[in-house]
Amino acid sequence: MQSINIGLSDEQRQGVIDMLNQDLADQYLLVVKTKKYHWDIVGPQFRSLHELWQEHYEAITLNIDATAERVRMLGGYPVGTAEGFLKLATIKEHTGDLPNATEMVKRLADNHEQIIRNLREHVDASGDKYGDEGTADFLTGLMEQHEEMAWMLRSFIEGQALSSSGQRSGEVTAAV
Ligand SMILES: [Fe+2]
Questions:
Q1: pLDDT surpasses 80 at 174
Q2: Domain residues of the chain, as ranges?
Q3: 25, 44, 99, 140: which sits with the fewest CB atoms below 10 Å from its CB?
């Protein structure tokens, strides 16, 4: 790690660098999975999901770069190998299968939610444990983007349970 003087100790910086590298690895695996499903999707929802996943992987790709560059700003080095990403990531790959559209959406929603839970912990640790408000702010913005992407994916799954009149089966309407 480089020696820099920005008001954080080496231990503080190393603590946030480790968290950022884990978040980088998870985003990398998620961008790979999102692209794979963008390519593989078939069925009546082809166009909407194909386009939604392109929007998502483009946003995640920008965030990957920002996460890696934040590691450099803190004097560290980002993970940059497939081996390293697989070692650090908390989300899992599914090799050798071809799920249907709903299962693809469900897996991606679960992965976004996993990343949101990780980021929530990392936001707290960045500020409270390591005193790095800049990283806490950066990770908060990242978490909010994953919250929006997860909501879009969950909404798609919920839509599968709607009747032709638009009613949710067995559910009292919450909208008044
Ligand atoms: Fe494409």
A1: no
A2: 10-159
A3: 44
Whether pTM > 0.85 for this model: the answer is yes
| C-alpha 107 to ligand 1 mean position (Å) | 20
**Token digits for 140?**
């908060």
Q: Considering Cα of 5, then 10, then 14, then 16, what sign does the dihedral take?
A: negative
52 CA to centre of ligand 1 in angstroms: 11
The C-alpha R_g of the chain, in whole angstroms, comes to 19
The type of residue at 129 is K
> For residue 83, how far is the Cα from the chain centroid?
19
Fold of 10-159: Ferritin (1.20.1260)
pLDDT (average), residues 101-122: 98
- How far is it, in rounded angstroms, from Cα 140 to Cα 75? 21
Residue appearing with tokens 């949101």: 116
Q: Are 63 and 123 in contact (CB under 8 A)?
A: no
CA of 91 to the centre of ligand 1 (A): 23
Give pLDDT tens digits for 21-74. Answer: 999 999 999 999 999 999 999 999 999 999 999 999 999 999 999 999 999 999
Residue 173 confidence (pLDDT) above 80: no
